[in-house]
């Protein structure tokens, strides 16, 4: 089960890596393409600043290569091994997957990237919510 407090929760849902109380993104829907990487500056709940240093999220580019490859491999296996498509179709499936999941890959990469540097903090999750 994935629940608040697990790194995976923040990575999958794009919530604040420290308190897991709210989305880091201004628009929860990644398929509104103009909003894909629009993030709030800080968490309104625990006041964590997401961009630790200027251009912090450029580093997520490296993560996106890995995530992209994972999606490509999955697409290939599903198409070629499970659905027994031809190689050509399998490559078309890879391209279609990478394009179709692009917004998700972008966000997953940012979520993974920031979760490398920040961890869930039980106290932060509690304190400000009881105050308000
Ligand atoms: Zn927070």
Brief characterization of the structure:
With 132 residues, this protein is mainly α. The chain has 5 helices and no strands. The chain has one domain.
Strand-helix topology:
Layout: H1 7-13, H2 60-82, H3 87-100, H4 102-117, H5 122-131
Helix pairs in contact: 1-4, 2-3, 2-4
The structure holds zinc ion (ZN).
Radius of gyration: 17 Å
Share in helix = 40-55%
Distinct bound molecules: zinc ion
Number of domains: 1
The residue-averaged pLDDT reads 94
What is the H/E order? Answer: HHHHH
Beta-strand residue fraction: under 5%
How far is the N terminus from the C terminus?
29 Å
| Total number of strands | 0
Enumerate the spans where pLDDT stays under 50 for 5 or more consecutive residues: none
Count of alpha and pi helical runs: 5
Biggest beta sheet summary: none
* Category from helices, strands and their pairing: mainly alpha
Taken from the alpha-carbon principal axes, the silhouette is: elongated
Protein model, in words:
With 132 residues, the chain is mostly helical. Helix content is 53%, strand content 0%. It has one domain. Zinc ion binds next to loops.
